[in-house]
Amino acid sequence: MTTYVLVPGFWLGAWAWRDVTAALRGMGHEVHPLTLTGLADRAHLASPTLDLDTHIRDITGLVEAEDLKDVVLVGHSGSAAAVTGAAARAAGRVSRVVYVESGPVPDGMAQIDLTGREFVEKRVEDGWRYPLPSWDELQESGASLEGLGERERALMAARATGQPLGTITQPLTLGDDAAAFAALPKTLVSCSFPLAQVKGLIAAGHPAFAPLGGPEWELRELPTGHWPMLSRPGDFAALLAALS
Fold first, then answer.
1. Taking Cα atoms as reference points, which of 35, 15, 3 lies closest to residue 156?
2. pTM score, whole prediction
């Protein structure tokens, strides 16, 4: 049995992992889907003061409160900075970090720097909320919608929550935990980028991909769009269950 903690990306909550959670539990695994503060069923806690540290504490708090060990920590897309920070702080309880359609945010950078600062900032509402863009805007930003039919799009549109801006603008600071994070086994799950393309960018020394060539990395592919937990949940669960 493996213990999984599932962290959703921008605008989503634990609800997005429903089918993946059911599939993994059906295989006998322990699964903890998480809603980060200010989103989905925790939207009532949203405020301009929320920041990255809040979301890091959400993850580490769950791991510690449930006394979880040997955790496979799974982060989707925009949760990469929070997942990286949490994995570093709770490295003794984490056996592997899985980045889905994302990758580690470098120490000292913010998630918004990888997402696209200009794209985000011109869509902010009330000075601190980053709402779900239109489908056309998402595609323009590079987020593939492959596999999202009318049902999945309607679900996302109805349940998406504006992302508190501070959670993606605060830079990640690993400090003394950087070495512990660096030593953790890691997996990339690439969905909208063919794995051959990812490997080519690694070989070419692309600054965003070169670190994925280290011995601690395992590279996996699940051809679909940017939200595999909605477009191919059964196959996604099987991929997670098969990780070494």
1. 15
2. 0.96
Residue 79's identity, in one-letter code, is S
- How far from 165 is each of 50, 71, 83, 155, 184, CA to CA, in Å? 8, 28, 17, 23, 29
- Give 72's strand partners: 4, 96
Place of tokens 């918004």: 112
Q: Which tens digits make up the pLDDT trace of 182-224?
A: 999 999 999 998 999 889 988 998 877 888 889 999 999 999 9
- Comparing CA positions, the residue from 52, 1, 48 lying closest to residue 24 is 1
Q: What are phi and psi of 59, to 5 degrees?
A: -75, -50
SS (H, E, C) the chain: CCEEEEECCCCCCHHHHHHHHHHHHHCCCEEEECCCCCCHHHHHHCCCCCCHHHHHHHHHHHHHHCCCCCEEEEEEHHHHHHHHHHHHHCHHHEEEEEEECCCCCCCCCCHHHHHCHHHHHCCCECCCEECCCCHHHHHHCCCCCCCCCHHHHHHHHHHCCCEECHHHHCCCCCHHHHHHHHHCCEEEEECCCCHHHHHHHHHCCCCCCHHHHCCCEEEEECCCCCCHHHHCHHHHHHHHHCCC
Q: How far apart are CA 88 and CA 15, in angstroms?
A: 26
- Write out pLDDT tens, residues 131-168: 999 999 999 999 999 999 999 999 999 999 999 999 99
